[in-house]
UniProtKB/TrEMBL annotation:
Location(s), subcellular: Cytoplasm
GO molecular function: magnesium ion binding; xylose isomerase activity
The protein, known as: Xylose isomerase
Cofactors required: Mg(2+)
Record lineage: Bacteria, Pseudomonadati, Pseudomonadota, Alphaproteobacteria, Rhodobacterales
Ligand binding (Mg(2+) 2): 266, 269, 305, 307
Enzyme class: isomerase
Principal location listed in the UniProt entry: cytoplasm
Protein's organism: Wenxinia marina DSM 24838
Catalytic activity of the protein: alpha-D-xylose = alpha-D-xylulofuranose
Subunit: Homotetramer.
One cellular component (GO) term of this entry: cytoplasm
Amino acid sequence: MTDFFKDIPEIVYEGTDSSNEFAFRHYDPDAQVMGKRLEDQLRFSVAYWHSFAWPGGDPFGGQTFDRPWFGDTMDHAKMKADVAFEMFRILGVPFFCFHDADVRPEGDSFAENTARLQEMTDYFAQKMETSKTKLLWGTANMFTHRRYMAGAATNPDPDVFAFAAATVKTCLDATHQLGGQNYVLWGGREGYETLLNTDLKKEREHAGRFLTMVVDYAKKIGFEGAILVEPKPQEPSKHQYDYDVGTVYSFLKDFGLENEVKMNIEQGHAILAGHSFEHELALAASLGILGSIDMNRNDYQSGWDTDQFPVSVPEVAVAYYEVLKAGGFTTGGTNFDAKIRRQSLDPEDLILAHVGGMDVCAAGLKAAAAMLEDGGLERMRDERYAGWDTSDLLGMDLAAIAEKVEREGINPEPRSGRQERLENWVNRFV
């Protein structure tokens, strides 16, 4: 035990009338929503990196947080794990997620990195024996170290490709050992800064081969979780090959991986790509590749990925509507890829940010469930496309369609899309 969260109680559900900030007002883990406990619908996860490894910097400033576990020794790493599992207990979360670099200090070689990761994996395994918190997914950090400045799988140097591939192998091993339910790859620098020195065709082919290797190795070791790719359009690269769900699906189809890999979709990345979160979720669901989500938000006045905790129930509700409509999570869940602000210095701030985010998500999911059970939105959508239920146009050619239009005197008038009425309908539930 540490004393970092000293005097902070375990967070329990007290209902909407509670004024206790250290209590849930909407998140009752045992409440039944669409035939499942709310905890099992939401499957909350804490992001190890933002909560315990981030020093409080921003693009114009360095470290603001002073954490007792900040350091480059294994003792520091184990203290960080002790604090993390204390927070998991306080929040009662069922899952956490990590990168390798979050949990072990950087070594002087691949062998040292591997040994340190294995030591921390064993330490996590011991802590998980007495904790309800399990591993939602693991991943490898292939973007922070200077070796990855030109990418990992798409790096022009084959030695960097090799180092990255070997690192993913060790991270898959760790995820498998800890019973992780997914393994995530996201290309923090899998893109380019200038086309003047970039071979797009070669880099894309290398990325496809890399992902195929990951899928093959997961099968080899008997990993039964999902392999997920997390789309991100840019920042820090000018353009990244995993730009959005549509781009990634095209990539998967090209390399025959569309039935092997699903998506981990982040709200902030969707916004950076010029989409809404619900658009990316709906598209992934329609393509059969919706896996898991990173729940956060961006600041609408900032041009980068600010990774803030969600605060808007209406925004969260329309996102969970798409998740529930697709059947809900299986191996995936709601990972808070979110961080407190760099001026939020106190231990209480870290706890309360998660409490607020969990409550917003709970309220949003319950609203989404109510919308789906009411069925009004789907009925109105079906009415809009009802003409296609009896149409044979898709089985005809252009000449036959032209003859039909002329013979039947077809001269259609436009019909209302009813956007405002639909928005009003959604607002009845949120």
